[in-house]
Amino acid sequence: MRHLHQSYPPPMDVLGLEAFVAIAQAGGFRRAAERLGLSQTAISRRLQGLERSLGETLLTRTTRSVALTKAGATLLPDAERLLREMELCLDRVRARRFRRREEVVLAVLPTLAGSLLPALLTEFCASRPHVSLRLLDGSATEIEAALREGRADLALTLIRPAIGDLVAEPLLSEPMLLVCPAGHRLAGRARVAWAELAGERLIAIHRQSGNRTLVDAATAGLPFTPDWRHEVHHMATAVACVAAGLGLAVLPRMAVAAAANPGIVALELTAPEIIRQIGLVRRRGSVLPGTADRLEKFLRARLGTAA
Q: Which residues cross the membrane (predicted)?
């Protein structure tokens, strides 16, 4: 009797697809390996296995970065879609099986909690009815403490130097703006240099704030000492005080936009220009629970696209 051998396509290489997508999104093997909690050797092997099964090279690697080949550019959007659909399918199965909520604790800056984040979280939860979110909105210092103490799974916060026990991934950047009353002598200007603020009363955010640390470091070399006459804890309070004429403030663009106060004007600050970096932060070496991991990937995809 003759045996007929039928050729079947190989099974879908989920781990290989996950490695390929992570490398393409992160722009390199090292950051992709950190994202997946793997060694660079392991993630390279997964990519090589996928390329062998396809008979195509998906990425070209240089000393500093990676680039998609034509085959890789063709595959990437479909691979991202497949992985998202698989995660949603697994979420639905888990919800049916366990009939319980999965809580994610996200630490976040108040400026993000009051602007970008609500719409994103609504989109994330729309197809995940079993997810329960708990937001810890606070300063960068408070957020880092919550991560270190295990009170938060993940954070969307200001990225600062010297956070060696935490892993940070920049996603967005925004300038610090000068906020002045609508009737102030500078209000009609498009931009103002720091030197022009000599003699002006300034309203500072409290010293534990990451934004205050950023501003102090950037202005340390000025030929004059800024007159931080007043101090407040919340940025919304600073905006209200500026509108009332108490002084001027230096605040991130998102905080100004969220305030939507007609009594203020925001101007570009130069010499020096101060830019703050916002991104995802978590404990180094930690393995995120399933839903927290999916939220991290979701925020990375949405905010990385908006950068």
A: 104-121
